[in-house]
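Internal ticket - ligand job 607, 5-amino-5-deoxy-1-O-phosphono-D-mannitol:
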Amino acid sequence: MCGIVGYIGKNNCLPLLIEGLKRLEYRGYDSSGISCLHQGSISTFKKTGKIVNMEATVPKSLSATIGIGHTRWATHGGVTDENSHPHLSQNNKFAIVHNGIIENYKTLKTHLENDGYTFRSSTDSEVIAHLLEKNYTGDFEKSFHKTLSLLEGTYGIVALSLDNPDYLMIGRKGSPLVLGIGNDEMFVASDVSAFLGHTKQVVYLEDNEISKLSINNFKTTDFTLEEKKKEIATIDWDISELNKNNFEHYLLKEIYEQPESIRRAFAGRFMESIGTAKLGGLNMTPQELINIDRVGVIACGTSYHAGLVGSYVLEELARVPTAVHIASEIRYKNPIVDKNSVYFAVSQSGETIDTFLAMKEFQRKGSRVLGICNVVGSTIPRESNGGVYVHSGPEISVASTKAFTSQLTVFYLFSLLMGRMKDVSQQKGIELIQALKMIPEQIEEILKSTEKIQSIAKEYSKLDNFLFLGRGISYPVALEGALKLKEISYRHAEGIPAGEIKHGPIALIDKNTPVIFIVPKDHLQEKMISNIEEVKARGGRLLAICTPNNQRVKELVHDYIEIPECDPLLSPLLSIIPLQLLAYYVAKELGCDIDQPRNLAKSVTVE
Ligand code: M6R
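stdout (structure tokens):
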């Protein structure tokens, strides 16, 4: 969603702000803008569309040492130049960038208008700039504090003041902000990728914190002005991970990174000789783990699908009932929380507002919530009661791929750990570890069929209304395959439990309906073959994801893509790979904006 970057230092901020905004492009946006202090006034440039549109309006000769920038993903007010950030106060004394939603902006706006303030945009954010000016009595810090105390809703705000060129004011409530500590220069951004090329030293702001950022130092207080001691953390990944290397798109790069990202997810977490796993971050004693009698998962989108796979694995290996909840639904449902339950908040970004707020609701009811997240230092892991990082490395493409398979890997590890405390024998545990360790090589094997998948995709891109069918543990894979296709190729797609096809969806089938069957070698294979027969009899265009020896399936369908045989419980790690590639190549064939699909944002930080 919206992205923020700010700079104060010895260098010209304009190229740094633009570079930072480009690094944030992956979050999804529809307009961008920057403001800087230049020759006694605030110069502002904003434009809809890609950052290059806005960049083209910035004079090459312009130089400034303090400035702020923003990429906007419209919520309040259409996609227009005026609604883009930064917003300026009435007399152009203050400029602000804002992520989040000001819920009481209408009331504030009415008061401001009654006081003679004129609004240039139809956003909720503009009130902040006017309030800063209205509350200003010569002390920017004070006016910032006073302004924030009037706001209801969520925000990450960075403000620039014409009369106070030595510092930026920054406030956070529900929308992430991180400071970058350099030499004679400081950054602030909504995520570290904006400035990682310049410093790896960072300070994460917590909710209800305000920072004053000067060229060589920062001071953080809470809303009561009490000073907070902040730790400087070091980012342990590199800017090169943010590059596409030789891949045409981040999505393809990230699909190809999966052998490595899965290895990273399980590295150092096996206790192979006794067939179990160790997950230090859970903060739970063995007794507390044994006492778990229910597991719940809260998540959205792809992370929700990972949770669904996780529920099959946990119930199978650990025999623990596991319920998976869509975060935006469960949080308004007055969830029933059991004393011996543990909940997992699963999120690549660690910032998804629905997952975060559902987590808070569960915690309020006394529950332990553990995070399964990718972005280190993000809100969910910091506010959870413990958890596990999946260590996929930065995932830039809006469509999630490698984070999904890493989330699955963590569910396998947790299920193994729990399972070994309950039903699973040492031998079975050892076999599972061995099977998991083979997965990266098996994915490399699947990646060798990329050319074949590309040519299948060429044919299928001419079709619309895709059905993805799977049973058991392959049903969430069907959901995820359908989600990948729809989000990047804009083709309609549905994931359906294959057994349900007769209860309605079979009515959709005609010769132009592409139907994709996920048929790993497992106990439901025969049932899937019956479903293929049923669909074939009605004329669908059939594609199967199946194992090499499955002659019957191969003879029934028009096209097939092979995946190696593996332990049936692990099959989602393999069967999702061809579906990711299929979605990628269909989208490419259709000329879609693969890494930044229309209307989508990488981390959904507003409800
Ligand atoms: O960062 P999160 O995992 O919490 O994000 C959840 C969803 O927004 C995300 O998975 C979304 O569905 C992706 N676009 C899927 O590719």
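Auto-summary: The CA atoms of residues 211 and 220 lie 4 Å apart. The chain has three domains: 3-241, 243-445, 449-599.
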